[in-house]
Amino acid sequence: LIISILIAVAILAVVSFYLLVHFQHPDDKNDAYFPKFVVLTGFVLAGCTVLLLPLDVANNDGYAGCDGYNTKVCGGLNMNLLWQIMYMITLVYLVFFIPFSVFFYEADDGTLMGGPRKSRAFAASIWQIAVVVIVGLVLAICYYFLSYTSIPVTEYIVPTINGGAIYETENYSQNNYSFEVDMLENLNANDIVVSDEIINDPNGDGIISIQVNIPTFCIAFMSFIGWFFFAFFGGVGLASFPMDGILAYVNRPRHMDAVEYAEAQLSLRNRTNELVNVGELLKIERAQRESSYSSGGGGWCGGKSDRKSNKIDRKTLNQFKQSIFLLEKDVADFSSATQSKEQYSVFIPYFQLFGGILSSILSILWIIQVCIYVLPTIPVHPFLNDYFKWFDLWFPLFGVISVAVFSLYLLGAAVNGCFKCGLRFFFFTLYPMKLHRTYMSSFLFNIALVLLCSVPAVQFSVLAFAEYAQYTDVLQMFGVQVKYLEFFSIFFEKKIFDYVLLAMACLTTMYLICKPRESPYSALELRDRLKSRND
Questions:
Q1: Three-class SS of residue 438?
Q2: How much is the pTM?
Q3: Is the pLDDT of residue 223 over 50?
Q4: What does the angle CA 151 – CA 57 – CA 225 come to, to the nearest 5 degrees?
C-alpha cells in the first residue's frame, strides 16, 4: 500500500505539472510563483483525497479480523487519521492558501499607473485576515451549537441459550498459531431460531448522542457547503460531459471550399468587429462609473438602484466574456481547417468521441446506481457493488481502480458542469481552462471548486458503494458520525442533495437534447443596450 501511495502521488504531480505548463497564459510564465505552487499542490491534494477511498477499501481496517485473528487481508494503515489530516489540509487550502493567492494575484502594485510601488503581499494579507476571522467565527459558532451527533442504535436482549455449541480450543499461542474463522461451527437450527427472535425484538431502538471532534465537524461543514455546488454542477456535468465529447466529434473541423471559406471568414470578421465595439463601450461605461464613485455618487453603500445597476453590469460583462470565448473557439476551429490543418491531428476528434462514449457509460451507470441503490430506503440491488466484489474474487486491484475511476469522474463532471453553466447562463463569472491562455485566476477558481467538491464526491461515492466499502474508516465517518449530526442530518438522512443531483442530471439531459450547442450572445444587442445606458 505504501508503494501504491507513492506511485499515485507521483502520477498526480506529473499530471498537475503538465496541466499547469500547457494551460498557463504566457503573461504568467515568469510571475505568480506562489499561486502556481498552490495550484500544483492543490490538484495533487484533490486527487489524493479522492484516491484515499480505494486505498481505504484495500486497507480493510474495519474488518473484525484486523484486531488480530485474521490480519492477512489488512493493510495496517490508520486511515481514520489519514482522512482527518487530508481534509484539514483541504480546509487550510480553502481558507488560507487559495484566498491569499487570489488576493495576491489580483492586487495592484501601483506601478501600472506610474505611482509608487506597493506591497502586494501586504494588501493580500489584509483581505486574508478578514476571510480567516469570518470563517473562524462561523465554524466556532456552528461547532458550539451543532457538534452533537445522534446515532440510532438497536439494543438486542439475548436469552440464555441452553444446549448451544461448546468450543474447545488449544493454546495456539504457544505453537505460533493464530485463530481462524473457519474453526467455528456453523449455526444449527436452534441458533437460527434464537437469531430471528433477536432481530425481531421490537423494544431495541435507542439513540446515542455524542459530540464529534473538531476535525470531523470541519469535514461535515465542508461537505455540507460543497454539496450545494456538487449537487448542482455535478448533476449538470453528468449530462454535459458525455455530450461535449460527442459534439466535439460531430462538429470537428472539416475541409472547406472557397465559398465556405469566404463566408466563414466574413462571419468571424464581423463578430470580431462587433465585440470590439462592445468592449469600447464597456470601457467608457466603467470609466464613467468610477468617476461617479470617486465624486461620492455611489459605491458599496449605494442604494437599491446602484445594486441593481451593478448586477446588470456583471451580467453584461459575463455575456461579453461568453461571446469572446465562443469566438476564440470558432477562430481556432477555422484555423485548424485552413492555415493550421497540417498541424491538426485527425485523431483528436476520435479521441474525443471515445471519451464521450466512455463518459456516457459512466454517467448512465452512476444514474442507475443512484436510482436503485442510493435513493431507496432498502436498496433494490447492489449493482456496482457486486461488480467491484466480483473483481475482488480474481484480481482485487481492478475493483480498487474502478472505484477510483468512478470517484474521479464525479469531480470532472462537477468542473464540466460549472463551465457549462457559465456558457449558458450569466449569473456568475466564466473561468474557462484554455490551452496556453489560462490565467492564474481561472486556475485558482477551478482548484477551489475541485477541492470543495472533493469532500461530497467522496461522501457520495462511499455511500453509493457502501457494501463494497463496508470495512472502510470513511464509511464510519460519513455514514454514521456526519450523517446524524444536528441540522446536517436533515439533508443527509433524507438524501435531499442526492435527489437534487439526479434531478439536475435529468433536466440537463432534456435541455441539451433540445439545445445541444452554445450560441454566442448577440453582440449587436449588447451594443444597443450599452449605447442606450450611456446616452
A1: strand
A2: 0.80
A3: yes
A4: 55
User: Of 66, 65, 97, 59, which Cα lies nearest the Cα of 81?
Assistant: 59
User: For 308-365, what is each residue's pLDDT tens digit?
Assistant: 566 666 777 777 777 777 777 777 777 766 666 666 677 888 898 999 999 999 999 9
Beta-carbon contacts of residue 204 (< 8 Å; ≥ 6 apart): 154, 155, 156, 157
Strand, helix or coil for residue 150? strand
Rounded to whole angstroms, the Cα distance separating 523 from 507 reads 29
The 3-class SS string of 459-511 reads HHHHHHCCCCCCCCHHHHHHHHHHCCECCHHHHHHCCHHHHHHHHHHHHHHHH
- Amino acid identity of residue 147, one-letter, is S
Contacts of 125 (CB under 8 A, 6+ apart): 100
CA distance 74 to 56: 10
Task: Write out the DSSP string of 320-366.
Answer: HHHHHHHHHHHHHHHHHHTTTTTTS-TTHHHHHHHHHHHHHHHHHHH
Residue 58, classified by CB atoms within 10 Å of its CB into exposed (0-12), middle (13-18) or buried (19+), is buried
CA 197/CA 161 separation, integer angstroms? 12
Residues 401 and 58: their CA atoms lie apart, in Å, by: 10
| Dihedral angle of Cα 398, 403, 407, 408, to the nearest 10 degrees | -10
Question: Would you say how long the chain is, in residues?
Answer: 535
Q: Residue 63: CB partners within 8 Å, gap ≥ 6? A: 70, 73, 74, 471
Handedness of CA 294, 299, 304, 306 (dihedral sign): positive
Closest CA relative to residue 87, chosen from 477, 535, 446, 417? 477
Nearest residue to 408 (alpha-carbon basis) of 8, 2, 7, 3: 8
Residue 422 has pLDDT above 60, yes or no: yes
With b for 16 or more beta-carbon neighbours within 10 A and e for fewer, the 306-339 pattern comes to beeeeeeeeebbbbbbbbbbbbeeeeebbebbee
The set of residues, in sequence order, having a beta carbon less than 8 Å from that of 150 and lying 6+ positions away, is 207, 208, 209, 484, 486, 489
Q: Which residues pair with 209 in a beta bridge?
A: 150
pLDDT tens digit sequence for 233-267: 999 999 999 998 898 888 877 777 777 778 888 88
Q: Pick the closest to residue 533 from 358, 289, 267, 360 (CA basis).
A: 289
Beta-bridge partners for 266: none
